[in-house]
Amino acid sequence: MSINKYLNKHLPLNFDLSNKIFVITGANSGIGYELAKLFANYNATIVFACRNKEKASNAINNLKKIYMNAKFAYLYLDQNSLESVDEFVNQLFLLYPNFDSLILNAGILFADPDSKTKDGFYLVNGTNFIAIYYLVNKLNQLIVSSSVSYKHKIIFQGSFMTMFSKYKKGALSNKNSHSFKTYNISKLGAESIFYNFVKNNSNTNVVYALAEPGACKSNIYHNLNKILIPIADLFMSVFFHSTEKGALPAFMLAANPNIKNGDILIPRGILSLSGFPKKGKVRKKVKRNYLTILNEAEDLLNSKYNL
Ligand SMILES: NC(=O)c1ccc[n+]([C@@H]2O[C@H](COP(=O)([O-])OP(=O)(O)OC[C@H]3O[C@@H](n4cnc5c(N)ncnc54)[C@H](OP(=O)(O)O)[C@@H]3O)[C@@H](O)[C@H]2O)c1
Questions:
Q1: SS3 call for 301
Q2: CB of 216 closer than 6 angstroms to any ligand 1 atom
Q3: Could you tell me the pTM of the whole model?
Q4: Which atom of ligand 1 is nearest to the CA of 117?
Q5: In terms of CATH architecture, what is 3-302?
Q6: Residue 175 falls in which region: left (phi positive, over 0), alpha (psi -120 to 50) or beta
Q7: For residue 207, what are the contacts with CB-CB under 8 A and spacing of at least 6?
Q8: CA pseudo-torsion sign 131, 133, 137, 139
Q9: What is the pLDDT of residues 44-70, one digit of tens each?
Q10: Does ligand 1 come within 6 angstroms of the Cβ of 78?
Q11: Is the CB of residue 105 below 6 angstroms from any atom belonging to ligand 1?
């Protein structure tokens, strides 16, 4: 089935998102860019939350030419800096207090072993997990204390790699590994934030949802070991699906006004690597580890900032 056919089958006739605002982190590239396209196709307002203004502007200009009825905006967000995360959350709430969905999509795969965020966290966990934990906590505080009652969806971009994660207490203070090891833990962390907020959510104005995109050939593999690239390319062309298809789980969650707190969409294929979205469950690894990994992140954050 083509993506258009899938969308026509699953969305109401004349589906329109004109009055809705969707904020996508890392919208300038890969799955985030495809998500922006999907929202633009239904005339939404899309806020690009990106660290590189030039890349975001180029992406916005490309989409403006195709989707005349969509609206685009930019907000600066660098998940390598908690100061930037603070500023982003404040700006988001100031400029778009009525946003419909925030899709926490930005992420990295590999990093040099010693590289760290501005606050001193090892880069992969700092970007994919700790910054997001900090961001969602800050945003949740603002939503809870707000007198205005808009309904918001906070959508996490998880990964099937969570099921291969091997987390042990202390792992967040280990150097980045130039392999999937650290990445898997960072995505376990991201899915743990989702699970924790779902469990403790007593605010009817916000729902937390999780999307897993499956495996998609995107820029995230750009710093793979050069020798491995031809093998990876071959592997990806057989087992991976397109970034457009990878964007569908997050899109279907955001586009659906009736999603419930805790909803999960993942690709329906083997190991949820590829295919159209189906309902998913919280992964066992997440249920087993979420408290320990979040406590570890909190301890690290408390040593820098007060949560
Ligand atoms: N591709 C897959 O197979 C796959 C599978 C499962 C899950 N995912 C998840 O899907 C999400 C999107 O990945 P993708 O495959 O689309 O990768 P991508 O094409 O590399 O896009 C990643 C996006 O994240 C942004 N980003 C990276 N570090 C950032 C930071 N410090 N602050 C703000 N933005 C930052 C990038 O910005 P720049 O362009 O400025 O670097 C880019 O816009 C990630 O969370 C990833 O873990 C991907």
A1: helix
A2: yes
A3: 0.96
A4: 31
A5: 3-Layer(aba) Sandwich (3.40)
A6: beta
A7: 151, 152, 153, 154, 201, 259, 260, 261, 262, 263
A8: positive
A9: 999 999 999 999 999 999 999 999 999
A10: yes
A11: yes
